[in-house]
Specification:
The protein is mostly helical. It starts with 5 loop residues before the first helix and ends with a helix.
Length: 122
């Protein structure tokens, strides 16, 4: 199985580290927004605040999931399995890795997973 090109590996690792820093900053900002809001107000204000908190928590959870994917990709770089599709065990397309450096699936692998989901969703 051909190894991923060194230049592409370095490029993707840099993108992953940048994405990790961005996600961590966004998590920190959402936490600050969540903790420093005024707790007073009438029922309508409290409802709006609860909805905003729920939205913030949803965003926080999404960011946490993305952070896990980024960490897993960095781990795959370290153990030498980065750029290999989990579904087909073939190399992931370089353009796909550049666009989504934490991806675990090639386009073909993603299509296979999607068809399996559709098949078992019925």
């Amino acid at each position: 199985m051909p190894a991923i090109q060194e230049g592409l590996l370095k490029e993707c690792k840099a993108k992953l580290l940048d994405a990790k820093a961005d996600v961590l900053n966004r998590v920190r900002n959402t936490r600050q927004e969540l903790h420093f809001e005024d707790k007073g107000g009438d029922e309508a204000d409290q409802t709006v605040r609860v909805l905003a908190e729920a939205e913030t928590l949803t965003l926080h959870e999404r960011l946490r999931g993305q952070l896990v994917e980024i960490e897993m990709a960095l781990s795959r770089i370290e153990n030498g399995t980065y750029g290999i599709c989990e579904e087909t065990e073939e190399p992931i397309e370089p353009d796909r890795l550049r666009a989504i450096p934490w991806t675990r699936l090639s386009i073909e692998g993603a299509e296979i997973r999607e068809s399996m989901k559709r098949r078992y969703a019925r």
